[in-house]
Write a structure and sequence with these properties.
single chain; 197 residues; alpha/beta
Length: 197
């Protein structure tokens, strides 16, 4: 998104007082450098009726060093209530290198959430999914969504049949406390938000 498009988006949000939360997602917002992101966060915070900022990113999972001190300071010093939504799909994706930067964000008041994608042959197993929820909580991250795969070209081999997805979710429900059970959802074109399965 170019600077003109950012400006148009900010003007749109500023003109609609019913918007209380801005979500940075699509592509990956943490591909912006810290200075660019700080400028954008400040511009969003300057809109009085916006109270919350949510950033969705997979980058901290694959490059935990992206959670820099500058990024932490930017989010922690903002008047906005900030959330970072990670995209962790398997417990093997989290290691010791994630502990300190996630703890620093959390101690500064940033809410940490996770959304996973249900992937055949990767995490379509109740034991793995429960291990992931437990490990996320150990790292201070709450499981938020478990997505049924979007049927995009080239990814069909990862799709998990709906009945199987519901069965896995029921098994997780029997094994996990409620706060560690992610919502099983699907993205449906044209719908304003996620659809619960």
């Amino acid at each position: 998104m170019g600077s003109r498009q950012w400006q148009q988006a900010l003007e749109y949000v500023a003109a609609d007082s019913s918007i209380s939360e801005v979500i940075l997602s699509g592509g990956d917002p943490l591909l912006l450098n810290d200075a660019q992101l700080a400028k954008l966060v400040a511009q969003i915070a300057a809109i009085p009726h916006v109270r919350r900022l949510r950033i969705h990113s997979r980058l901290p999972v694959v490059i935990p060093q992206r959670l820099t001190a500058q990024l932490q300071a930017c989010l922690q010093s903002s008047r906005l209530q900030c959330s970072l939504v990670l995209h962790v799909n398997h417990p093997h994706e989290l290691g010791a290198e994630h502990l300190a930067p996630l703890a620093a964000l959390r101690s500064g008041g940033v809410c940490l959430l996770n959304q996973s994608v249900l992937l055949a042959g990767v995490n379509d197993d109740a034991t793995i999914l429960c291990q992931l929820s437990e490990l996320l909580f150990d790292y201070g991250v709450l499981p938020y969504y478990l997505h049924s795969l979007d049927l995009v070209q080239g990814a069909q081999h990862f799709a998990v049949e709906r009945g199987r997805a519901l069965q896995l979710h029921r098994q997780m429900h029997a094994l996990l406390p409620g706060y560690l059970l992610p919502r099983l959802v699907q993205e449906i074109a044209g719908e304003p938000g996620k659809t619960l399965l």
